[in-house]
Each structure stands twice: as structure tokens, then as C-alpha cells.
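Field log, afternoon session.

UNIT: design team B
ACTIVITY: writing a sequence onto a fixed backbone
BACKBONE:
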């Protein structure tokens, strides 16, 4: 069959939209890598709080606070967005919220007087990041062919780790290591570390532009805002009342709710743990982060084909086994060298666990309610996400030992793995898609 010029042009446009969608992962990864996990997290603990144990606990509470807000509201906002049709306005609003909250971190001086300010700014930025992810993830099922969802999800995660890698290198080479940081930034009052806030904000805003220009969105339904709110809430309530119709989806969401707690805790506290337990300097933390982003990117890219060929469930379960083993090895590593090795191995399984969870939901979400279901996906990722960081924080405070506190992540991975056994692979029938 001859392929017309119009068909080729449409295919190029679809591919351009998918690439632009994936670039958003490149954009927002700077926030989780530099702010939540490594540079600002360690600065908060050592520079602002000035106590590793208290800093790890407070940072866990900040992550838990924002997670609670996201858990409560994400399904409602998703259902409202489905009623209205378009997703980009929501994505733009929450991207802007994250950018503004992140930029404000520049003002967090290295003094305990700034603990509350930093706590609130990080919580606000994280809320914007997480809500944005609901609408971003929900777009995948509309723009990718069903048989390629796993690949595009994995490739986007790999691209995200690439973005984290590049931003870590820029911070290390441009602001942390040199005697005279770039752009005349001084080292007094940790300005060369605080610059991470504006830097991430600009990076996020700049590379978020392509998705708004090139990725197709659903057409607006014309439903008034007030009606959409009422209909969205009613629809979400109906979904919960008729949960038996979506048994497999809810089984998956419960399993993800548990194992994601472990991932959230690793991201929120991992950098602080490395700095406190092994005395890593800011430079060493960035180097460790670079290593993790390399292995995580390779894992997400490599497992992407396994997702499409063997299924998302199998990929998630393999990743969870790897996470359980390597997290335990990292937490109780006797030396910094062993910690580096275990952390690098852990990174390989982080990407597949996240990417294949997203592709699983994209395959099983009803097309007419995909944003609602990704809102539930956000709920599953955040409903008890406070439990991971808060549990680690509480155990850290009670035991006075960072290793004992962080070891709780392994329990979440193992329980999530056991719950995934009862989950069925998504059906193989093709679903509507734009590509």
C-alpha cells in the first residue's frame, strides 16, 4: 500500500509530539535530582538545620506534607480535567507553581532561621511537580501506539535521567568546584549552592516549552468550570463505588502505593543519608548523583523493550526484587566504597520500576477517564507516600541511627512485590490512540 505524503507528514507530526512529550521528563528531572534528592536536600540538612539526624527527619516531613496534599486532590483534579477535555492548561499551571517555588529557594540562607521558609518552599514546589505529573503522564495513552507505550515511557524516563545527569555536572563544574563560580556567583552564604534553586527553575521552564508547542492535547469539551467540578467529583465517586469493575486496576494501584513509598523515601532522604552516614561532601554527593543517573538511565532505557515484549507487570516485579536487594545492601554498606557500588546497582532498577508503572496504567486506564485514573495513579503514589519518609524519620529519631531509619524502605519494596503477584497483565486488545 502506498504511503501518501499526507500520511508521512502526519507520522512526522506524531513523532515530534512524542519527542516533545518525552522532553518534559528531561525538564522536570532537574527538580527531583538537584532539589529533592541531592544538592538542596543535603544543604537543608547541613547548611540550614545544621544537624544530620534532625535534617533528615524534617526533610522527610516536608516530603510527607506535600505528598498528603497531592494524595487528596489529584483524583479530583484528574476527573475535572477529563470533564473539561484539555490537559495542557493544568500542566502549565502546576509547572509554573513548581518553577516559582524552586526559584524561591535562592533566599534560604544557611541559618536555622530559614528552616520554615525552606520547608514551605520545597513543599509548594513539590506539590506543583507532582500535580503536573498527573496530567503529563495521562497524555501518554493518547499519543503513543499501544504496542509502543512501554518503550516511550522507558525512553522518557531515560531522557529524564539524562537531564538529571547534565544538571548535576553543570552544578559541579560551574558552581561547586571552581574557586570562582560561573556568572560571578559568590561562595559567601553558600550562594554557589543556593543558586541551584534559580538554575533548576530556569531549566524546568525552558525545556517544558516543547510539550506545549508540539504535543497534541484533547479538544475542549466546552463544559463550564462549575459543571466540570460537579461532574468530575461525581464521576470519581462513581469510580470508587463501582471499584469491582476495575478490580485489576485497583489491585495494581494498591501495590504501587506500597512500593512507591520506598522509592519516595529513597529520593527524599538518600542524599541526606549519604552525607550524614559517610560524611560525603557536596562534591562527592554530586558525583554520586551522576553515577546514579547514569545507571538509572541505562536501566530505564534497557528495560523499555522488556516492558513491551514481556509486559509491564513482569518488568515491575523484576525491578522490585532488584530494589529490595540493592537498597538493603546500600543501607548497611560497611564502607563508602560498598555504598557507591550498591547505590549504582540500585539505580539500574529505579527507572524500570517507575517507567513500567506508568506504562501499565496507560494501558489499563479507560480512554474516557484516563486523567481521572492517572489522578488515582497519583493518589496511589502519594496516599501513603508520607508513610515512607515519616516512618524513616521516626525510626531515625527513635534509634538515633540513620541506617536503621532508612532500612525501612526495603519493607515497602518487598510488600509491594508480594501484592503485585495478584495483579494481571493489561489485556492485549488495542486501545484508541492518536499514533
Amino acid at each position: 500500500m502506498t504511503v501518501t505524503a499526507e500520511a508521512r507528514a502526519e507520522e512526522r507530526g506524531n513523532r515530534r509530539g512524542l519527542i516533545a512529550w518525552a522532553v518534559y521528563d528531561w525538564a522536570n528531572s532537574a527538580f527531583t535530582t538537584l532539589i529533592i534528592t541531592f544538592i538542596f536536600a543535603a544543604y537543608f540538612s547541613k547548611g540550614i538545620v545544621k544537624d544530620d539526624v534532625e535534617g533528615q527527619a524534617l526533610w522527610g516531613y516536608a516530603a510527607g506534607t506535600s505528598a498528603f496534599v497531592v494524595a487528596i486532590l489529584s483524583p479530583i483534579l484528574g476527573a475535572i480535567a477529563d470533564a473539561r477535555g484539555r490537559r495542557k492548561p493544568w500542566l502549565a499551571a502546576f509547572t509554573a507553581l513548581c518553577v516559582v517555588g524552586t526559584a524561591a529557594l535562592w533566599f534560604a540562607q544557611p541559618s536555622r532561621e530559614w528552616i520554615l521558609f525552606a520547608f514551605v518552599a520545597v513543599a509548594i514546589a513539590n506539590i506543583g511537580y507532582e500535580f503536573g505529573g498527573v496530567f503529563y503522564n495521562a497524555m501518554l495513552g493518547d499519543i503513543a501506539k499501544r504496542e509502543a507505550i512501554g518503550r516511550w515511557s522507558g525512553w522518557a524516563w531515560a531522557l529524564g535521567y539524562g537531564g538529571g545527569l547534565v544538571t548535576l555536572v553543570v552544578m559541579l563544574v560551574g558552581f561547586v568546584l571552581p574557586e570562582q563560580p560561573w556568572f560571578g556567583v559568590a561562595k559567601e552564604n553558600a550562594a554557589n549552592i543556593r543558586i541551584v534553586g534559580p538554575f533548576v527553575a530556569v531549566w524546568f521552564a525552558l525545556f517544558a516549552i516543547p510539550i506545549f508547542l508540539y504535543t497534541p492535547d484533547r479538544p475542549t469539551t466546552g463544559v463550564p468550570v462549575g459543571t466540570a467540578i460537579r461532574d468530575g467529583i461525581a464521576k470519581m465517586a462513581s469510580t470508587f463505588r463501582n471499584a469491582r469493575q476495575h478490580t485489576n486496576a485497583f489491585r495494581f494501584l494498591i501495590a504501587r502505593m506500597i512500593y512507591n513509598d520506598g522509592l519516595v523515601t529513597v529520593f527524599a532522604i538518600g542524599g541526606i543519608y549519604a552525607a550524614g552516614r559517610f560524611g560525603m561532601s557536596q562534591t562527592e554527593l554530586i558525583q554520586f548523583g551522576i553515577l546514579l543517573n547514569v545507571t538509572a538511565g541505562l536501566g530505564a532505557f534497557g528495560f523499555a523493550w522488556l516492558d513491551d515484549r514481556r509486559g509491564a507487570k513482569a518488568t515491575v516485579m523484576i525491578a522490585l526484587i532488584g530494589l529490595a536487594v540493592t537498597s538493603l545492601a546500600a543501607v548497611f554498606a560497611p564502607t563508602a566504597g560498598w555504598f557507591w557500588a550498591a547505590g549504582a546497582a540500585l539505580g539500574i532498577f529505579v527507572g524500570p520500576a517507575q517507567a513500567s508503572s506508568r506504562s501499565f496504567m496507560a494501558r489499563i486506564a479507560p480512554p474516557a477517564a484516563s486523567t481521572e485514573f492517572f489522578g488515582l495513579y497519583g493518589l496511589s503514589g502519594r496516599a501513603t507516600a508520607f508513610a515512607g519518609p515519616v516512618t524513616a524519620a521516626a525510626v531515625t529519631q527513635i534509634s538515633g541511627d540513620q541506617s536503621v531509619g532508612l532500612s525501612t524502605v526495603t519493607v515497602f519494596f518487598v510488600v509491594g512485590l508480594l501484592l503485585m503477584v495478584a495483579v494481571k497483565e493489561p489485556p492485549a486488545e488495542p486501545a484508541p490512540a492518536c499514533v
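LOG NOTE: DSSP finds 19 helices and no strands in the chain.
NEXT ACTIVITY: expression trials, pending approval
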